[in-house]
Amino acid sequence: MEKLRLGVLGTSRIYAQRVAPSLKASLLVEPFAIASRDAEKAKKYGDAQRFSRSYGSYEALLADSEVDFVYIPLPNHLHLEYIKKAADAGKPVICEKPLCLNAKEAVEAAVYCQKKQIPLMEAFMYRFHSQWIRAKELAARGELGELMTVNGIYSYTNKDGNNIRNIEACGGGALLDIGCYTVSSARYLFGREPVRVVCTLVRDPVFKTDIFVSAILDFGEGKTATFSVSTQVFPHQRITIIGTGGSLSIKIPFNMPPDIPGHITMDVGVEKRRIKTKIADQYLLEFDAFAEALIRKTEVPAPVSDAVANMAVLDALFASAGSGTWEPVKKY
To answer: How far apart, in whole angstroms, are the C-alpha atoms of residue 159 and residue 6?
Structure first.
C-alpha cells in the first residue's frame, strides 16, 4: 500500500522526540515535508529528520499538492488559524492538544472543517495505548464495581521563560498543556460529560501562566474526578480509578515509552493483580489510525466533537478559578 505523505507545520520538539521515531515503523505514513517560518531552520531540521522537502513558510507547505495530510504541533494560539488554512488547502489535519484556546474556537474549527469536508482530529495519543484500552474494558465490565471517582496527577518542572508553555499569549500554562489530559481521561473512563466543575489555580508572578491547578469534576450521581497538574513541581504522573468494588492504577498513563509494557495495578480486596499490557507505540498507533481512516474514507478514530467537549470543561475550570465557585459545563 502506498504511504500517505505527511506535512508538519513547525520544527517542534514533540515531533522530533516523540513522533518521528515512531513513524519509522509506519507502513501507512511517510514523513514528507517540514515547514518553518525560517527556511534555513526548516532545511536543517528537515535534513536531521529525513524529510524530502522543507519550506520557509507554513503556507508554502500547504500549497504542496503532494502533501496528503498535515500535523500541527504549533503553539496553541496558532491552532485555529492553521487548521482553517489547512482546510482551505484541502489537507486533513491531526492537531496537537488542546485543539484550540477555548471551546468557541474549537467549534469554529470543527464547523469550518466540516463545511470543507476535511477530516480533523485532536492528537490525544494516550487513548490508542493498550493499557488505556484494557483499563477502560476492566472498568466498563464492572470488575471495579460501579465507577465512582478518578484521581489524576500530572506534573513536570519547566521554568524557562522563553518556552511557549510559559508564555500566556501563546496559550501556555498547566491547565491547557497537561490538564487537558486529566480532563480527557476522566471523561473517557466515565463515558459521559461532567455537569459542573470547581477549580483553584496559582499563577507564576513573572510568566502569569497557571503553574499549579487543582480541580473537581462533578459527573452527577455522586461520581467525581479530581486532579492536580503543575508545570513547576517534581515530575510525576498517575491515574487511579476507584469503584464500589475495587481500584485500578495506571503507572505511566500519558508519557508511556514505546518499548516497555504498560503496568496496571488492580486491587479488588481479595487480590491485588499486576497487569502487564502489550508493548505499544502510542504515537505510531495514533498516526496509523488517522491515516487508515483517510485511506478507507471512514470517520477518524477520535471525533472532533470530543475535542470540543474537552475544551468546554477546560473553559469551565478557568471560569471557576476566576469566580471561586462551582461553574456549569456548557454544551455545544
So the answer is: 33
User: Which structural domains are found in the chain, ordered by start?
Assistant: 4-125+284-301 (3.40.50.720), 126-280+312-328 (3.30.360.10)
Determine the pLDDT at residue 143: 93
CB atoms inside a 10 Å sphere around CB 324:
10
Confirm if 41 and 105 have CB atoms less than 8 A apart.
no
Which pLDDT tens digit goes with each residue over 238-273? 999 999 999 999 999 999 999 999 999 999 987 889
- Grid cell digits, residue 172: 501556555
Nearest CA to 201 out of 94, 20, 322 is that of 322
Instruction: List beta partners, residue 8.
Output: 34, 71
Confidence at 46, pLDDT banded by 50, 70, 90: very high
DSSP designation for 1:
-
Residue type, 234: F
Check if the beta carbon of residue 256 is closer than 8 Å to that of residue 282: yes
Q: Which of 189, 172, 178, 82 is nearest to 134 (CA)?
A: 189
Q: Looking up cell 510568566, which residue turns up?
A: 207
Burial of 253 (0-12, 13-18, 19+ CB in 10 A): buried
Integer Cα distance of 95 and 109 in angstroms? 11
Residue with the three cell numbers 488559524: 81
Burial class (CB in 10 A: 0-12, 13-18, 19+), 234: exposed
Q: Is the pTM of this model over 0.85?
A: yes
Parallel, antiparallel or unpaired: strands 69-72 and 147-157: unpaired
Grid cell, residue 138, equals 476492566
Number of CB atoms found within 10 A of residue 325's CB? 10
Other residues' Cβ atoms within 10 Å of the Cβ of residue 307: 27
Residue 133 burial by Cβ neighbours in a 10 Å radius (0-12, 13-18, 19+) = middle
Contacts of 92 (CB under 8 A, 6+ apart): 68, 69, 70, 86, 118, 119, 120, 290, 294
> What is the grid cell recorded at 306?
470530543
- Give the pLDDT score at 114: 98
